[in-house]
Write a structure and sequence with these properties.
Pfam families: LMWPc. GO terms for molecular function: protein tyrosine phosphatase activity. There is one protein chain. The chain has one domain: Rossmann fold (3-Layer(aba) Sandwich), CATH 3.40.50.2300. Helix content is about 50%, strand content about 10%. It has nine helices and four strands.
Length: about 200
């Protein structure tokens, strides 16, 4: 089984949406996707607008309404093969809590930007070299994506690697946040499928 974790501040808007999109789009593969926050919201549900955004992107209402926020911890960060932060501040928090996960942690838009530089063949060969275990295959592909750091063109602005936080803001801000997150998630799905799905 492979494991992916998504992380934002309160674990009520961005990271649950990323988690649920990945769970929905990778449902046929042998893996788990979880999420967490850097700030303890005490088991809070997703706001209505976050649930609406999830539904508009193909997530089942049951999945979104069942979500309750959770805090990240060094123990929870120790096992995922890929950790996707919603913004650079979350990636910093992840690396401070679990320094050994530096190479497995990216912002979701950074990962998508680096992965778009990697060909299907490059990612498949990295996975094949790692054997048949889904977790080992995904870790190998994540390392291949990480190797593009410093080679891929940097974003025009550092903010372009972040997903904007819509919490307690307008529906337009939720839509903007979704427009940044969803294409990045699509690229993650492509990478995970190349790593794990049977050829």
């Amino acid at each position: 089984m492979f494991e992916i974790m998504t992380v934002c501040t309160g674990n009520v808007c961005r990271s649950p949406l990323a988690e649920q999109l990945l769970r929905t789009r990778l449902a046929d593969l042998p893996g788990t996707v979880t999420s967490g926050g850097t700030y303890d919201m005490g088991g809070a549900p997703m706001p209505d607008d976050a649930q609406r955004l999830a539904a508009e992107n193909g997530v089942s209402a049951d999945m979104s309404s069942a979500h309750r926020s959770q805090l990240i911890s060094p123990a929870r960060l120790s096992s995922p093969d890929l950790i996707l932060a919603m913004a650079r501040e979350h990636r910093r928090s992840i690396v401070e809590l679990a320094p050994s996960r530096l190479r497995a942690a990216f912002t979701v838009r950074e990962f998508a930007r680096l992965a778009s530089d990697a060909t299907d063949d490059e990612l498949r060969s990295a996975a094949d070299a790692a054997g048949t275990d889904p977790s080992a295959r995904l870790r190998a592909v994540v390392a291949a994506v990480a190797s593009h750091r410093g080679m891929a063109l940097p974003p025009e602005s550092p903010d372009d690697d972040d997903v904007i936080d819509p919490y307690r803001r307008s529906w337009n801000t939720y839509q903007l946040s979704g427009s940044q997150l969803v294409p990045a998630v699509d690229e993650v799905v492509r990478v995970v499928r190349l790593a794990v799905a049977p050829a």
